[in-house]
Each structure stands twice: as C-alpha cells, then as structure tokens.
Amino acid sequence: MKKAILIIHGFVGSTYDNEYLANYLELDDRFKVFTNTLPGHYLFANYQIGKYEEWVNFTKKSIQELIDYGFKDIYVIGHGLGGVLATILANNYPEIKKIILLNTSFKYLNFNQTKINILTNKDYKDYVEVFNQVFHTSIPFFLEFVKLIKTYQDILKEINNEVLIIQSDKDKIVSLENAKEIYDNINSKNKTLTYITNGEHIILSGNSLELERKKEIAEYIKLFLRGGKKWKKNKKEKI
After folding, report:
1. Is pLDDT at 124 greater than 50 in this prediction?
2. pLDDT number for residue 136
3. 31 pairs with which residues across the strands?
4. Triad 215, 85, 6: Cα angle to 5°
5. Which domains does the chain have, with CATH numbers?
6. Residue of 236, 196, 35 whose CA lies nearest to 103
7. 3 pLDDT exceeds 90?
8. Is a pLDDT exceeding 80 seen at residue 114?
9. Looking at the whole model, is its pTM more than 0.85?
10. d(Cα 201, Cα 138) in Å, to the nearest integer?
11. Cβ contacts of 182-185, under 8 Å, gap ≥ 24
C-alpha cells in the first residue's frame, strides 16, 4: 500500500503555499498526498476567526481518517504553524514515521530585530511579506497562534520520529536561530537540518522560486521521505 503524506500549511496560509510540493510528490507512485485548509484559514478572507484547539483537533481527525483508511506509514510535512502541528501529531500517533518541518515557527517573529532591519534597509518592499503574514489578520486570531506555541513549547523533547528540518536563509518571519534551536531540542536521534539558500518563508508556492530551483528542493524532500542509502548519500547542510 502507498505511504500517506499529509501536508499542513502555515499561519494565515492555504494549501496553495505548498501546491507545487504536493503535486511533485504525488507523481511518485509510492505516495498518496493529502492537503486541506485549517479551520479559520481562508485564502481570500481579510479577517480570520478560530481557536488553536480547532487546528489541533482538525489535524488529528485528518490523521485518524488516514489510519482508518488503512495507511500504516504516514509522513507529515508542516510549514510554519503546520510544523508545530506536525510535532503534536507525531507525539500522538505511532503511525507517523517521519516529519518535515519547513520554516517552522516555534518562535514566530523577533519584532525588535525586524524593526531594526526595516529601519536600516532602504528596500522596504523586502518586508511586505512580514506585514502580509502577521498584521493582515485579527489580533485575537494571531494570539491563538501564540497560545498554541506556549501550550506545546516543550513538545520537541517528546519527538522521536525521523525528522528533516528545512529553514530558508532569507526568511523574514522565522529566524535561522529558531531552526538550530529546534534541531538542538528535538529528541530525535535521526535528525537533519538543511538550509535553503536564497529561500524566503514561502518556499514552494506557485510563484516563489524558479521552476528548476523548486524542483531541486522538492526532490530533496522526496529523497528524505523515500529514505535508504540514496538519502544518506545526498543529505546536505545547504541546498
């Protein structure tokens, strides 16, 4: 039977953010890929509503449905907020064998550092993504993300799954230090931290990178999921 892959998008994101990756992995006949939109997250909404418990319960239900369908090996890929949810799922379901944390945000923004960057960088358009992702939503909705982090801030110590941590070096929302902190604190003995050069917070959306570059990153992720000697030979500190 095929292995199931559940891809979870980030805060105020949508399935579109990881559309290329989902389509790429679906081409491999070993995998069946599933994506869906978290409660309260709508692509064209200017104001989101919902509670963090809904996100947790929704993703748990998604995993349980895959288990009930008969999948015995499940991989979870989480982007940003989705990465936090991936660790929660991994801690609850032994059927989850591997997780991938894409620009995962156990610390969302260093507001002081962002302020300094904005004040000293003349090219203000570089920071449009920060404001689009963080401020174009309601304060209560953003605080639900904060509550999620606070509730599960120690969960990394409970994770034993094989894990790939991917962090973009140009991410203006999640810092490089955050990725290293996840790597150091996660309990997994089989863990890899890889940096994406010249990548931003949204790595694999429809217009985020040139096609060949997106293909390179997606292939790297596929190698991890397939595992074996080829993965051990090709895993890297930077791609």
Report:
1. no
2. 62
3. 3
4. 45
5. 3-234 (3.40.50.1820)
6. 196
7. yes
8. no
9. yes
10. 21
11. 182/101, 182/104, 182/106, 182/156, 185/156, 185/157
